[in-house]
Amino acid sequence: MGNAQSPPADPRFAMASRAFSKQELDDLKALFDSLAAQSQSNAKFISSSVFQGYFGIKGVLGVRMFDLFTQSRKDGRLTYEDFVIAKEIYEKGTRDEIEEFVYQLCDINGDGIISRSDLEAVMHFIYDTIFSPDGAQPCLSSGRDTMEVFLSAATLSKEVEGTESRMSFVDFRNWCKILPSVGKFLGSLLISPDSGRPGFQVPYLHHPEKLSHDLLSLRKEYAWHIGGALAQQELEEWKLLYHSAIHGLSFNTFMAHITSGDGPTILVIKDTEGYIYGGYASQPWERQSDFYGDMKSFLFQLYPQASIFRPTGANNNLQWCALNFSSDSIPNGVGFGGKANHFGLFLSANFDQGHTFECTTFSSPCLSRTNKIRPEAIECWGIQVKGLENEQNDAIKETVLERFKEDRNMLKMVGLANSSE
């Protein structure tokens, strides 16, 4: 008669455990025990419903996340070993490991293929989570149809005859790069729901009541998209400082309204072609005879496709603000990137025209249908930054990663984790 033996320990569990401190492991065990008790499993495993309920990941994405945690056993039982292994990959893994995990998460059917229908399911989940009727600002959210702008940014380059086009791993990386809000959201699903997860916050858009919502180009979904490239403390409230429908197409009036604060601003343009795009100005708009600004500025597209274009480091031609100069080499107006008279984005001082060209400063394309801009509406939003004074004082001493520690996982996932180290 032989003695019954326990199954050998999973070597991945021992390796994963070493990535956590003793306190972190104790916390994971306490969380597991609590969820297992709710699962009525004699503290042996966590059920799918309890797992999804705690992390707030429901529907098809919740089912897929649970499947990844249980290593696709299909037995409905998430063990402590499973829990630690998956958390180690998702929270402590290398950039490639985190990206691969989230890439697999977007494979909703688990068939090794990420199709457009998979991406639609992901974006609908994001919409329902962030812009639910109970939480969204009335009249400032356009509904699920707006999420099409994010789907339009996706490249599905892998084609197999007789099947739907699919997204490659490289396609996925690029998609998260130009849509950092998506990357942040998917990269923080397993952070405690009570701790304020990156990618979930939407700025409150404060504007005059007399301004019809229909005249606003910046919708909640667009603000969430832009906010993906910003720090958490910049996502509290954005105040409309200037709108051409209220203040008229006047550069002097524009400057008078936007220079009332020292915080960053967001310039949004809707042109007569129906395209919506703009730029984030990290520095105040001030009369200069040359480019200025810092590497936090970026350009973005909102419609018909959403993308964000960060500085490449190719040059320092970031912000432009010229007023009352008589030289042709110093065009009067506001702009971003490129070079004088050939900007990535530019509005002339008359505010009746401008241009947008492919730009090495941000590696951005022409932002509209054509290079010439005919504005239909111009908006400028001021970002109300909490503790701006302290942040400015500390900025000299801190790197980007130190200031935005809460976004560490997301930065790894989109390939920025080492860019400032």
From TrEMBL:
This is TLDc domain-containing protein. Gene3D superfamilies: EF-hand. One of its GO terms (molecular function) is calcium ion binding. It comes from Asparagus officinalis. PROSITE patterns: EF_HAND_1, EF_HAND_2, TLDC. Keywords: Calcium. It holds the Pfam family TLD. Residues 216-384 form the TLDc domain. SMART domains: TLDc (SM00584). Residues 94-129 form the EF-hand domain. InterPro entries: EF-hand-dom_pair, EF_Hand_1_Ca_BS, EF_hand_dom, TLDc_dom.
